[in-house]
Design goal:
alpha+beta; 2,3-Dihydroxybiphenyl 1,2-Dioxygenase, domain 1; 3 domains; four-stranded mixed beta sheet; 10 strands; 23% strand
């Protein structure tokens, strides 16, 4: 037993009303070019109109001039089509409410779907139409569906209720790292601004924009912490190397000090002696 492997949607066909209503909606509202026109080969009383939704595939409509639009909602029973969704850019989506309102078309308002924005309204025959706009672009070589699959796995692993931007961003980062080689041995996230002073931000954080100051820092892994600070006349009391060392978090690292486990310690005044001038 083998599958009948699909390779995408070829076309969707809808039973429409009259010809002009169909052209006015699919091309006049949704901007789908009217690209092909012929009789319905299975029913000579109907026309068959073809529209391009934007990706080269087709929306087709059977028309009959004796049918008039009925705006009652189309059935949503099992087996029936609930709605059709069409992709639009973020730029177009931002105009959707205004352009529907100017035609006095009732709509749902913008809906937050986590991975996309949506808005819903009905066509002249009551079929629910969705305009959907992705909030992300997939990495080169991947599809939106592949990003959603990766994002879904992350969402489930984290126990989150629904997919959102953070899952998409993390999925894109992971997919990019897996698919693109780098000369770096370590590709983990880093902060390249850790030791950079830009403008007065560093000085403002340390309170030294107006006068001289002395600050002491401790690096712990990727973190850098301000452990001591003094300004103005407080600096005058600092005069020897011992004074400065005693201000640092690890001090002189001598036996009398409370040094963290794993750090070296030595007897007082031993570590700073020049070994070729003093006896051991």
């Amino acid at each position: 037993m083998r599958k009948l492997q699909s390779q995408g949607v070829h076309h969707i066909t809808i039973t429409g009303a009259d010809r002009q209503t169909s052209i006015g909606f699919w091309e006049g509202l949704l901007g789908m070019p009217f690209v092909f026109d012929q009789p319905n080969l299975d029913n000579p009383s109907e026309g068959h109109l073809y529209f391009d939704p934007g990706d080269g595939r087709l929306i087709t409509v059977f028309t009959n001039e004796e049918r008039t639009p009925d705006p009652a909602r189309t059935p949503t029973d099992p087996g029936c089509v609930h709605h059709l969704a069409f992709a639009v850019s973020q730029a177009t989506f931002a105009q959707a409410v205004e352009r529907l309102d100017e035609r006095e078309i009732h709509h749902s308002g913008v809906k937050d779907r986590g991975f996309m924005d949506s808005i819903y309204f009905e066509d002249p025959l009551g079929l629910l139409i969705e305009l959907a706009s992705y909030r992300f672009e997939p990495p080169v070589g991947f599809t939106h569906a592949e990003v959603l699959l990766e994002g879904h796995r992350l969402r489930v692993e984290r126990g989150d209720h629904h997919i959102d931007r953070i899952h998409l961003a993390d999925a894109i980062e992971a997919m990019t790292e897996r698919s693109r080689a780098s000369l770096s041995d370590d590709r983990s996230p880093k902060n390249p601004y850790r030791y950079t002073v830009i403008g007065t931000e560093f000085q403002e954080a340390c309170g030294t924009t107006e006068h001289f100051a002395l600050d002491v820092f401790l690096r712990d892994g990727d973190g850098v912490f301000l452990t001591y600070a003094t300004t103005g006349r407080g600096v005058e009391a600092l005069g020897s190397v011992w004074t400065f060392l005693d201000l640092t978090p690890l001090g002189r690292e001598e036996e009398w000090e409370d040094t963290p486990p794993g750090r070296p310690q030595s007897p007082p005044y031993r570590w700073w002696r020049k070994r070729d001038e003093y006896a051991t």
